[in-house]
Amino acid sequence: MSYEIAAAESSATDLILALAEVIYYIADDATAASALVGVEPAVYGAHVGDGGQNPVRAAAGRSRLVGLTGRIAKYAKEGAWPASLNDFADALTDFEVSAELLKGKEGPCLYGPDSLARMPEASAAVLLEVLTSAQARLAIDMGADITVPMLAALAGVSEKTIRMASNPNNDRPLKTVKDGTATLIRPDDALEWLSRRGDFKPTRYFASEDGRPRLGTFWELTAHLRAVRVERRESVESLASALGWSSKTAAAYSKLERSEAPKDLASLQPRHLEQLARHLGIFEPVEFAREVYPLIATAYGEALAKEQLP
Length: 310
What we know:
This protein is mainly alpha-helical and 310 residues long. Helices cover 60% and strands 4% of the residues.
C-alpha cells in the first residue's frame, strides 16, 4: 500500500468536507452541513469552501468516518484489528457506504454549482486504495478468491507487477486461475506470495497485544490460526513434524485452517490445540485451547447433523 494511515485519515476528512459543502449548496443553509461536520452553523458558514486548517476542518477530522478510516487503513497495512472478524466486516460495510460517493463515472459524485469537483482526486484515490486493500485482506481471511487489482492494492504494487509475478517462466510464479475472462488468485496462493514479501503482516484479530485473542466463531478461529502460522513462517507440515502429530491429526488441522469442520474429533483434540498454541507462542495456550475448542466441536456437530439429517 502506497498510502500512510495519516494520509488516509486526511483523505476521509476531505470527503466529509466535500459532502458537507454539497449539502450546503443543496439546502441553501448551513444547518445540515454544520451538523455533519460537528460545528455551529455560523462557524460553518464562515468557513465554507475554505482550504487549509480552520475550525471546520479540525471538527471534521474528529468525525467517526475519519477514525473508522484510520482503523481500516491500519488493518489493511498492518493486519491488526482490535476485535473480531465479524466486527471488522461490519465496520468495512460502513466504510463501503461512504466510498460509493467516490465511484461516479467521472470520479467522485460531489460537485459544486461551478461544476468543479469538491473532492480532491488524490484523496479519492487514497480512500479507494484503502477500501480495495482491506477488502482483499478480509477476502483472504475468509477463504475467498481475490482479483489482480485486490492483490496489487494489498501488496502496494502495480497490477503489472502482479501479472509479471504470475509468469509461469518464473522460478516461483504466483499461481492464478481463470474464471471466464477474470484472473483470480486463491487465498492460499495469495498468502504464499505475500509471505515472501518482508513488508507483509498476516492478519491478527485480537483484543490486546498481551492477551488471548477474542475469537467467537469457528471462522474467526481458523483465520487466526492460519494468520499466526504464516506469520511464524511455518507450514502445516513443519508444525506436524515439530509437534509429533500423526498424519491423521495433521490432515485434520490442515482442513481446520481451510475452515472445514473435522470429520473425527479424536484426530484433533484439545491437547493438540494446546500444543499448537504453545508452539506458535499464543498467549496462555492452555486457556486458549479451553476457550476455543468448543468452536471446533460445535462445527463438527453441525457438519455431522447436516450430513446425517439432510
